[in-house]
Amino acid sequence: MNTKTIAWITGSLTLLMALFSFVLSFNALTDLAAQHGVSIPPLFPLVVEAGVVIFSLNALYRSVNGESVRWQWALIIGSSLIAGSFNVAHAQTDILSRAMAAMPSLFLLLSFETFIGQIKHVVKRSNTVESIEQLTEELNTKRLELDELIKAKQSALNQLNSEADRVNSSIEQAQETLNSLREEIEQAKRVQNSSIAQAQQVKAQQDALTIEQRRGKLLHILTLECDIGPTALADRLNTSRGTVYSDLKALSETGQVVKNGDGWEVVQ
């Protein structure tokens, strides 16, 4: 037997007890009202006993909505005491009769309040289930939003990784280009150095030929004009006096010319 079946059976039995208590109290109060000349006797128990039901329902409504039920309980207890007092007044004077007369109102109160308590429990449980379902729905919504956010961030991360790969590829290509340029520069430097060396060698050869030609011309002039001075030689050779002295010194060291008193003469 599940919980819902037990709750349904308990609620039904509680209502039956309340109904039976109400009928007993209703008959006693109707008879009492007729004995004391109330114009419509059945309305008197309805007014007294219905107050317990109305005040209990009002207390249930306020309790479910989180409001204070202190005054409602005062009205419920007061109505039950009034109904019980009238039932006791209608009964015979012995203690057992009066105790039996007081029981319907008491059990009406207890049974109806038990039923109200069950309803309150069901309402709270329903609210709790509804809150859990709402919380679950909110969690699912947040989870979906989080999944979407994770997907968006993952997509952005993938784009960044792809961009980083492209940048790294560009850097590698630039590095290769730079290395190639460096090799070309080094090769150009080697070619340039080789060209400079060749040019210097050619120039040295040309200078050597020029020096040889100039010194040959200088020997020829000294052979014809042995008394010519350095200044005149510089003018005739179209060079400086220092160059002439250098040439004369070199020719002197090789024994091709000698210095005499006034100048230089070629050794025959």
Give short descriptive properties of this protein.
mainly alpha, rod-shaped, 6 helices, two-stranded antiparallel sheet, 268 residues
Compact overview of the structure:
The protein contains 6 helices and 2 strands; from the N terminus they run ααααααββ. It has helices at 3-35, 43-64, 70-90, 95-224, 230-237, 241-253; strands at 257-259, 264-266.
Task: Please describe what this structure looks like.
- The chain has 268 residues and is mainly alpha-helical.
- Helices cover 85% and strands 2% of the residues.
- It is built from 6 helices and 2 strands, in the order ααααααββ.
- The protein has a two-stranded antiparallel sheet.
- α5 (230-237) crosses α6 (241-253).
- It is rod-shaped.
- The N and C termini lie far apart (152 Å).
- The model has no long low-confidence stretch (mean pLDDT 79).
Task: Provide the fold topology.
Blueprint lengths: L2 H33 L7 H22 L5 H21 L4 H130 L5 H8 L3 H13 L3 E3 L4 E3 L2
Antiparallel strand pairs: 1-2
* Cα radius of gyration in angstroms: 67 Å
Strand content: under 5%
Strand tally? 2
Average pLDDT across residues?
A: 79
Quick one: overall form? rod-shaped
Distance between the termini: 152 Å
Contiguous uncertain segments of 5+ residues: none
The ordered H/E elements are HHHHHHEE
- Count of helical stretches: 6
Note the main sheet: 2 strands, antiparallel
Record the strand order, biggest sheet.
1-2
Structural class of the helices, strands and pairings? mainly alpha
The level of helicity is over 70%
